[in-house]
Amino acid sequence: MYTSIVPNRRQLLIQDLRFYAFVHYTVNTFTNREWGSGKESERVFAPRAQNAEQWCEAIAAAGMKGVILTCKHHDGFCLWPTKTTAHSVKNSPYKGGRGDVVREVSDACRKYGLKFGVYLSPWDRNCPLYGTPAYNDFYIAQLTELLTNYGDIFMLWLDGACGADAAGQPKQKYDFERIWRTAVELQPEIVMSGCAPDVRWIGNESGKTRESEWNVVPRFAYDQQNLAANCQQDDDLRKFQKRCQDAMLPDLGSREFLANYDDFMWYPAEVDVSIRLGWFYHPLQRYTLKSLRHLMKIYYTSAGSNALLLLNVPPNRKGLLPKADVKRLREMGAWLQKEDSLVLDARRTDADGGFTVALDFPRQSVDRVRLSEDTTKSQRVEAFEIYANGQRVFRGTVIGFSRIAIFDRPVTTDRLEVRITRCRNEPYIDRAEVCATGAYRPW
C-alpha cells in the first residue's frame, strides 16, 4: 500500500524548513535581462551599496528559514572569486575586485539564523569549454569550491537549462549523476532540488499547486531525461507552457494513479515563485510586486499544503532589496508570527486506532487546525474532516508533513475532532494544533 516509501535523512531536514528564499542576483541585475548572453563585461557588476545583511534581515523577518543564492546563472558570471575563470566578481569594480558576494551572503545567513544554499547553473554561456566533455570537469571544480569554502550548505538547486546547437539539440550533456555524487560527498546533509533526486519542481513558476500534493510518486517523476526536459530548456513560451502542463498532472500520487506503476519514491514538491514578475530585478517591474493577499494564499496552498515554498526576492542595482519588497516581507512575517501566537494549549486525545484526534480547550472562537503526519512512517492520510459542535467545519484530502486547515468561517467551541476518513493503513498524526481566530484569512 505504498507505506514502505519514506523520506531519506536529507528530505526529513528540508520538510522542517518548508519556507525559504531564492535570491537572483548577477550581471542581469544591471543589464535588465533575465538570461545573460555570457558576453557581458565584468565591469557591469557594480553595486553601490550592497548589503547582504539587509537581505537576510528581511528574509528572516518574513519567517523564511534559508537563502539560496544564484552563485552563477546562465551568463557564467561568478559571484565569488573563483579560480576557474576570469569571468567573476574579482574582475568587477565591486570592492575593487576584492569582493566575495557568496561569502557575504553566507555570513549574513548565519548572523540571522538562516540556512545557506547555492544555485550553480550547469549552463554557462561564457565558458569556452561548454559543449565538450571537459566542461563537466570545469563545473565540478566550481561546485567543489562552493561546497568546501563556505561552511554548511543546506541545498544545491540545479537548473536544467541547456544551450542548443544549430540543429536545436542540447549542446552539452550534463553529468548529473557525478554532480549529485560530488555534492553529497562534500556536504552529506545537502538537499538537491530541481534537476535532482531529493525535491521535485512543482511544474510551474506562478505559485500554483495541486489540491492533493503527494510525496510518494511514481519513479518516472525522477527520470533524469524528463527532469532536464522540464527545467527551463528554452525561452519559447508555448513550449515552456506545454512542459509545465506535463509536469502539473492533476494527480501524481492517488491510489488510482499509482496502480498504473510498479516503482515508487519519496519526492516532495517545491513551489518556486518570485515576489515580482521577473526573477531578476527590473526597474519597470516595481508595480508587479505581489500583494500580501496573493503571497499569503501561495503560502497556505504550498507550505500549508504539504509542499515546500521557495520565494524569490531580487536585489536591485544598488545591491539592496527594494523598500516596498522589504515592507511586504515584514507584513508576511508578522501574520505568520501572529498565527504562531494563537496556538492554543489543547488537550489531545486519540481514539479509534488513531483515526480520530480530539482537541479540548477553553471555549472560544477558532478558525484553523495545523496538522502533520509522522513521515518516517510515510504519507498515509488520503482524506479527513474536522468537526465542531457536531457539525463538519472542514473537509480536506492529504496532510503529509504540513497541512493548515482553515475553516470557511470561525466557529466558537471548546472541542474539535479531526476524523481520518480514508487512509493507507493506520494513520500516524504527529502534530495537531488548534489556533484561536485572529490569524490571516487568505480566502
Automatic annotation (TrEMBL):
List GO molecular-function terms, semicolon-separated: alpha-L-fucosidase activity
Q: Would you tell me the Gene Ontology cellular component terms? A: lysosome
* Keyword Hydrolase found: yes
KW Hydrolase (keyword) present: yes
Report keywords, A-Z: Glycosidase, Hydrolase, Signal
The UniProt entry's GO biological process terms, in alphabetical order, are: fucose metabolic process; glycoside catabolic process
Top-level lineage group: Bacteria
What Gene3D superfamilies does this protein's entry cite? Galactose-binding domain-like (2.60.120.260), Glycosidases (3.20.20.80)
Principal EC category = hydrolase
Q: Which EC numbers does the record give?
A: 3.2.1.51
| Membrane-spanning ranges | none
**Domain named Glycoside hydrolase family 29 N-terminal: residues:** 39-339
The UniProt entry, under InterPro entries, shows: GH (IPR017853), Glyco_hydro_29 (IPR000933), Glyco_hydro_29_N (IPR057739)
Q: Which family does it belong to?
A: Belongs to the glycosyl hydrolase 29 family.
Protein name as it appears in the record: alpha-L-fucosidase
- Source lineage: Bacteria, Bacillati, Bacillota, Clostridia, Candidatus Fimenecus
